[in-house]
Structure formats: C-alpha cells, structure tokens
UniProtKB/TrEMBL annotation:
<protein>
    <submittedName>
        <fullName>Putative mRNA 3-end processing factor</fullName>
    </submittedName>
</protein>
<dbReference type="InterPro" id="IPR026360">
    <property type="entry name" value="Xnuc_lig_assoc"/>
</dbReference>
<dbReference type="InterPro" id="IPR036866">
    <property type="entry name" value="RibonucZ/Hydroxyglut_hydro"/>
</dbReference>
<dbReference type="GO" id="GO:0004521">
    <property type="term" value="F:RNA endonuclease activity"/>
</dbReference>
<dbReference type="InterPro" id="IPR050698">
    <property type="entry name" value="MBL"/>
</dbReference>
C-alpha cells in the first residue's frame, strides 16, 4: 500500500457469517442471516434468504425473489452496474462479472484503497449476461473454482458442435443434458440458438421459471416446451434439459432411449463424468479457467490477491510467483459444484 493508504486487513475481516466490512457494517455473500448483506449474484451458495437488508443488482434481486419469494428481505436496494453509493466512509459500486445474469463484482473504496470482491466470474463470451469488466484495484478477491493449471476450458462452440453431432449420429436417442437451473441452462440454450438450432428445446419443470425470468430481462431463448406437455415417445431425437440429479433418477428413465449428457466445467475430469454415468460430457463452464484467472489478476493490476472458495493454494502460489502478495481466505459455505 502507498503512503496514506490503510491496509484492507484493518477494515475487512473473515467472520463465521462471511467476509465483513467493519466500517460499513455489512457482509458480502454471507452464509448466515445478517442485518446488511451485499450479494454478488443469485446462486444459492452466495444469495441466501433471511437477511434484513440486501443490496444487489436489479437482476440479482429479481432472481432472489423468484427463488425465495418477493419478501426475501425486508429492505431491497437495487444497484445497477456503475452506480455509486456510500456508507460510513466506504464507497460501493457493482460491476459486471460475466458469470450469470446480474452477476457482479463489488468495488469497495475506503481510506484511499480500492478492494474488489469478484464473486464468481468468467471471461468467455456469453450473451446471456453482461461481460466481465476488469476493475483496477489494490486488492483483488478472486474465486479459484478451477484454480489448477490442468483446467483449461475449450470454446463453447466446439462443445455445442459435439452435442449437435451426436444428435445427427444417434437420431433415435433422446439427448438428456444435465444443466444447473440458473445460468448454465440459459447459456446452453442460447448457444444452441446461435449455432442455428431452431427446433423446440424441452425442459424439466424445474428449469421453466428461471428461463422465463431470463426472457423477461431480454434474453431470447426461442421455442421452449415443458417435457410434461408432450408424449414421452415424441422426445426421441430431441434435446431435453434437466437438473443434473435427474439424469440418474426415475424421471430420466421414462425418456425414450436416453443418451445422458452433462454441461459442466467438471466434465474435463473423466472420473466425474463416469461417476455421473455421462455418455456425452460437455465442457461448458461459467467460471474462469486457470488461464483466465491469471489473466484477470494481471488485468486488474492489484498488488495483493485474496483467494477464496476453490483451489486456493495453487493460485496463492502462482500469485506469489508473479511477485504479488497473496493469501487464502478459506471462507466456508460455498459449494464447489454449485454452478460449474
């Protein structure tokens, strides 16, 4: 830190509830109910109900209301990207993270120091959300979900080609693709549309509500049909999207001649695909891979890196090799597979 700056460790701390800003009196993505919470995005391991006051992007507030009810918090404060507010000497602003609809990095400015909590983020093109914007800062708090050099995500277009190629090769089989309901589902649909696939895409009922929310926010997804609305035998040769857990339960066994597929960053780990009995692994991730984690650290220009939820040790080691200060926050309560 330069002369006159206060080191963030004097005003940010890790508590059992989560990362806490002492002068502002608020938590970021707390895992337990608190009075004041700033939420980076709508995935359940970051956006929990029960807080008295929640500040988030308008899209994230809409997602939380869709999942937990309109009264999920007594006070809801929308923060569009780039707007600035402040409390007790702390300036707060939200910036695109490129993870899912409404996902944000949170910039805190206090005592002439800029700290960015990135939440979950990715750098790949994704038309279903605002693209990641590097925010210059002194301290960068980064995720490390895929924080090992072995994790390098291929272009999504190639994975979509694999899915469409399998449909041509096995036209009699129902291609059931496991996707997380928020973010991955809508991204896969949009990628299929961009690849020219204009047939109906069939949805498990658990995916319908969030797809409708995305469309309400201007993300066109095309013709979507609930599986329960058509005879199951008509799904041969079609694409059916479902939650990952449905690939191995009675629901999927009612589909005709199922070819189980899954869209996940973890599908580059063969043991994971085998464990889930996936025939067609699609490596599609909503997190930064190893190369993009390093690129982001370089882009934001921070002199200190705090690493959380994921492969912390490897990224801390790499940041130190780059001549930066680095530490692992070891926050608890975040699920590795929540939105991969």
């Amino acid at each position: 830190m330069q002369k006159g700056q206060s080191h963030p460790s004097t005003w940010m701390e890790v508590r059992p509830e989560g990362l806490f800003c002492r002068p502002g009196g608020f938590y970021i993505d707390p895992i337990r109910p608190v009075k004041h919470a700033l939420i980076t995005h709508g995935h359940a391991d970051h956006a929990r109900a029960g807080h008295e006051c929640v500040m988030a992007t308008p899209e994230t507030l809409a997602i939380m209301a869709s999942r937990a009810g309109a009264d999920f918090a007594e006070h809801q404060i929308p923060m569009p990207y780039g707007e600035v507010t402040g409390t007790s000497g702390v300036r707060i602003s939200f910036h695109p993270a490129g993870h899912i609809l409404g996902s944000a990095q949170i910039l805190l400015e206090h005592a002439d120091t800029r700290l960015v909590v990135s939440g979950d983020y990715k750098r790949e093109h994704d038309p279903t959300c605002a693209p990641f914007e590097p925010v210059p800062c002194d301290v960068f708090v980064t995720e490390a979900t895929f924080g090992l050099p072995v994790f390098r995500t291929p272009p999504v277009e190639g994975e979509i080609d694999k899915l469409l190629g399998s449909l041509r090769l096995f036209p009699e089989r129902c291609h059931a693709v496991g996707v997380y309901a928020l973010g991955k589902c809508q991204r896969l649909i949009r990628a299929l549309r961009d690849a020219g696939y204009d047939r109906p895409i069939y949805l498990h009922g658990a995916l319908v509500k969030l797809c409708a929310l995305y469309e309400e926010h201007g993300i066109a997804l095309g013709d979507l049909v609930r599986v329960s609305e058509v005879p199951r035998e008509k799904l041969a040769g079609e694409i059916v999207l479902c939650p990952p857990g449905s690939l191995t339960d009675r629901w999927s066994r009612k589909l005709p001649n199922v070819l189980p597929a899954m869209a996940s960053g973890w599908m580059q780990v063969r043991a994971r695909a085998k464990q889930r009995r996936v025939e067609l692994p699609l490596i599609i991730s909503d997190h930064a891979d190893w190369d993009d984690l390093i690129r982001t650290i370089e882009d934001v220009g921070a002199r200190e890196i705090w690493v959380t939820h994921g492969r912390e040790d490897a990224l801390v080691h790499q940041a130190k090799r780059m001549g930066l200060k680095a530490r692992a926050l070891s926050l608890i309560g975040y699920e590795e597979d929540a939105a991969d």
